[in-house]
What we know:
Organism: Halomonas campaniensis
Structural class: mainly alpha
Pfam families: LysR_substrate
InterPro entries: LysR_subst-bd
Number of domains: 1
Protein name: DNA-binding transcriptional LysR family regulator
Oligomer: single chain
Distance between the termini: 14 Å
Largest sheet: none
Number of strands: 0
Strand content: under 5%
Number of helices: 3
Radius of gyration: 12 Å
Keywords: DNA-binding
Amino acid sequence: MTDIGEIVFLPRLLEHLAREAPGIRLSTVRSHREDLKREMEEGRIDLAVGLIPQLGAGFYQ
């Protein structure tokens, strides 16, 4: 998640999750990580939020 994503989207997402899935665990990582594409392909990261051009083709954007 980009820093703007954390400011804009994260509070609303956390509020929604607290209601709908109170036991869920959520962790965020910065999108500048070089290995984000690989980690998503391997299932270690499930969702990327923000402008993340390094993902390239093969991801729903």
